[in-house]
Known about the structure:
Order of helices and strands: EHHEHEHEEEEEEEHHHEEHEEH
Strand content: 15-25%
Number of helices: 9
CATH topology of the largest domain: Aspartate Aminotransferase, domain 2
Bound molecules: pyridoxal-5'-phosphate
Distance between the termini: 29 Å
CATH superfamily of the largest domain: Type I PLP-dependent aspartate aminotransferase-like (Major domain)
CATH architecture of the largest domain: 3-Layer(aba) Sandwich
Shape: globular
Amino acid sequence: MTQAYNFSAGPAMLPREVLHKIQSELLEYQNSKASVMEISHRGVDFMEAAEKSEQDFRELLSIPENYKVLFLQGGASAQFSMVPINLLRGGFKASYANTGHWSVKAIAEAKRYCEVNVCTDSTENNFTNIDDFQNWDIDEDASYLHYTPNETIAGLEFDYVPEVSMPIAADMSSTILSRPIDVSKFGVIYAGAQKNIGPSGLTIVIVREDLIGEVVKHQPKLFDYSTQAHNDSMFNTPATFPWYAAGRVFEWVKDKGGLNAMQTINKAKAESLYRAIDSSDFYSNPVSSRYRSWMNVPFLIADEKLNITFLERSKEAGLLALKGHRSVGGMRASIYNAMPQEGVDALINFMNDFEKDFG
Ligand SMILES: *Cc1c(COP(=O)(O)O)cnc(C)c1O
C-alpha cells in the first residue's frame, strides 16, 4: 500500500510516529503490566502520564502560572454551555462574534443563559470574510467576548486577537498548537482534541484562575470549572486513553521543535495549497485572502458535476476524506499539524493531474 494521507476535518490524522509509539505500548503500559486503557486514573502510572501531558502542553503554549489546564469531556460543544455558565459571573450579557458555523452553535447555546450581543456578523458574506475590528459593536456590559479563531467549515481564520476590556473566550478546536499564541490575552481557551491534539473524547480548557468559582445557579456541578480545577480534572473518571495519547502528541510536537516550528511548516503547507488553487481557473477558494485558514482549506471545482469523480479518484490515489462540508460543497483539505508537506504536495500533484484530465 502506498502511503495514504488523511485530510479529515476531525477526528483527524495523527502523526504516524505517535501511532507507532501508542501501538508499541498498548498492551503493557510502562511497568503497569496492563494497558493504559485498563489502569486506574488514580494510580501512579496514569497520574504520571496525566501530569507529564499537562506539563508538556503548558510548555508548548507557554501557559502562565495563573491559568488552570483542564482535561474534560463533552467536546467543544459542552464548552458552548460551560463558557456562559462560568464566565457570566453575575452578568446577564455576553458578546459573540458570528463568523461561521461553530460561532452560530456557540451563540445558540449562550442564548439559553443570557442576552447575546452579536458584535460582528459574517452571515451576509457567507462566512468568507470578517468585518474590520473597528466596526465591531461590542456591548461594554458584556461579561465576556466569545469568538472562534478558526472556523473549521468555511476555512476562515483570524490573524489577530481582538483587543477588548472584558475577558475573551476562544474556541480553538481547529487551530490550537498550530502556532504560538499569547495565552495571557485570553480568559478561556478551549479545544476538542480530535483536530490537532489527539483522539476524540477529550476537551482541553485553559482558564484564568480568577475567573472561576462563580457560576450560574442550578447548573451541573461537573460544569463548574472550579470543581474540575480543584479535582485535577478527576472529579469523575476522565477520558484516560485520549489524555494519554494527547501526551504522546505533545511529545511529538516538542520533538519537532515546538510551536515555532509548527508555525513555519503550517504556513508553508497552506501557502502552497492556496497558490495551487489560485493559479488555476479550474479550482477556487472564496475566502478573503487575509483570513484564509492555515488548517482547513475548502476548494470548489468550476464544474461541480466533477466532484464525485474527484473524490473517487483522490481516494484511489490515497488522498482521503476530501469531501467538503455539505453547507459549503466541493472539497475541503484539513491540514493540521500531523499532515506533512509531502501530503499537501501529493494533493497538489493530484489536483494538477485531475485538471489536465478534466479541465
Ligand atoms: C469540531 C469543532 C467543534 C465541535 O467539537 P465537538 O468536539 O464535536 O463538540 C466546535 N468548534 C470548532 C471550531 C470545531 O472545529
